[in-house]
Structures are given as structure tokens and as C-alpha cells.
């Protein structure tokens, strides 16, 4: 049995017992893009208790949020009950959930339109209540509903926007982009472990350069990895870094910090825990120029490299709006 067959089997069981069941989220997005989904998610109007009654092997990984994990033959599928979320006081989890009966309500709580698509498992019919198909065709990352609300609910969504844009070669929609910049300092409410996981995906999904350029453009780089941001503009010896100055690229706004990305990748291969440390928040003003000494003190770089760099300045690039 392959993952798609398992997800289809779960949908069949739910529907035979009188419940709605649809494929949802990233698996639908990937199928429409012609990619093989890494995993499959199912959404249903069955409550967690009703799901576990049908699937006794189900694991209640998030029953309070309506999520049951069903393992089978070394694979797993998440089954989530249709719901609306009420409040996100911790910036990650809903304070409470209200189960709903329609998929239309459920998708309104999700992050981006391309991740809010539903599909009937048997016919392949796509149900789109958020404009996700149009954004897939236009190659746009757009928050569902109000971007500010989406990012207040889960701060990690700001990082995910950049990762998805880099991975698929998409652009971030203008208001979604501006909302990221408005909430950028709130990224420190995310645990180092979740940040590390997101950074690891950026480094390993084949578009590390694009991902880090988007982190820079959205101002997230200075918050999450200020040491890397401070390295931008530092001239690199060509005998060691032939990629040199990327002024010929479409994002020509200073010298490359690609060697720093390569260093992170090497550290990741050598130490799976590397890159997950938290950093002090810099809350200074954000204008056209950012003083790198305030963002990343020379002492921090000295500890990493053994040398103290000259005082640096980092040019904040102009955003690219659609």
C-alpha cells in the first residue's frame, strides 16, 4: 500500500459510515503541481471520538484540536475534524476550537490559499473556497483572509511564506509581504526547535539561496539569524568563494552571503542540532540602512570565526510587489 492508497482507504471508511471526507492541504497542492506529496492529510466532519471508534489504532496527537494520527504499514495520515479556531494567545495554538460541519468553514483557518484546497479522493474533483487554484496558476503565495490575523495566529507562518515561495519559485503577494514585515519582531515567540526545523527545510529543499534572499527581503533574516545578516556585504576571497558578488542576479543588492548559507549547510550535516539557537531580539528602527553592529555585535562574530570584522552596514533591499 502506498500513501495515497492509505489516504483513499481512510476516506472510504469515513464515507461508508456517513461522514464527509476530503484530502486537504499540501497534498492537494502538490498533486495539482505534478509533485509527489510527502504526506497526506484528510479532513472530515467526524469528531475525534468518532474517528478513533472507526480507527482504533489512531493516536490522539492533537485530539483537543480535532487531530488524530492514523499509522499503518509504516505510513501515517492525519485526520482533522472540520473546525473554526478561537483565539491564539500563545501565537501557535488556538485557545479553543469549535467543530463545524462544512469544509468551507474549515479552510478559512488555514495559512495560505495554495494550502487551503480540498480534493475528493475518488474523483479528483477540487473544491476551492479560497482562490487557491488561481494563485497556483499565478505562482503567488497569499494569506487566506487577513494576513495580519494569519500571522498573529502562528508566527512561524511568516517563515513558511518565504520557504514556499522559494521552493516553488513563487512570489509573495504584496499585502502578505507587508504583513510579514509588520509582524517580523514577533518571530521570537516561536520556539528555537520550530525555527530550526523550518531553516533545515529551507536548506534542504533545493532553493536555499532563494529562501535566504526572501528572509532578507522580509526582514526575518536579521531576527532569526542576525549573524548571517551581518555577513552580507562582507567581501569573500574568490579563491575560496568563486560565487563572489551576485550583482548580476535579479536581486542585486550587495555582496553575497551564500558562503554563510554553505556554512550552515555544512554545520547541519555535521551536527543535526546546529542552527537552532535562539538570538537576542534587536528592536531598533528599520529604515533603509541597518547597523550590523547593533544586530550582531562583533563579539558574537569573533566567537564564531576568531576574528573581529570591521564595522558593517547592511542594505535593506526594496520589496518586490506584484
What features would you describe in this structure?
This protein has 15 helices and 13 strands. With 322 residues, the chain is α+β, with helices and mostly antiparallel strands. Helix content is 40%, strand content 15%. The chain folds into two domains: 3-137, Beta Polymerase, domain 2 (2-Layer Sandwich), CATH 3.30.460.10; 191-315, no CATH class.
Topology:
Blueprint: H1 3-16, E1 21-24, H2 26-32, E2 40-44, H3 48-54, E3 59-62, E4 67-72, E5 75-81, E6 83-86, E7 96-99, H4 103-107, E8 118-119, E9 126-127, H5 132-138, E10 140-141, H6 147-153, H7 157-168, E11 171-172, H8 174-183, H9 192-204, H10 208-217, H11 220-224, H12 226-231, H13 258-270, E12 289-291, H14 292-295, H15 298-305, E13 313-315
Parallel strand pairs: 2-5, 10-11
Antiparallel strand pairs: 1-2, 1-8, 3-4, 4-5, 6-7, 8-9, 12-13
Helix pairs in contact: 6-8, 7-9, 7-10
Please tag this protein with its features.
7-stranded mixed sheet, alpha+beta, 322 residues, two-stranded antiparallel ribbon, elongated, Beta Polymerase, domain 2, 15 helices, 2 domains, 13 strands, disordered C terminus
H-E order? HEHEHEEEEEHEEHEHHEHHHHHHEHHE
Report low-confidence residues grouped into runs of 5 or more: 246-255, 269-322
- Estimated share of beta-strand residues: 5-15%
Shape: elongated
The Cα radius of gyration reads 22 Å
CATH topology of the largest domain: Beta Polymerase, domain 2
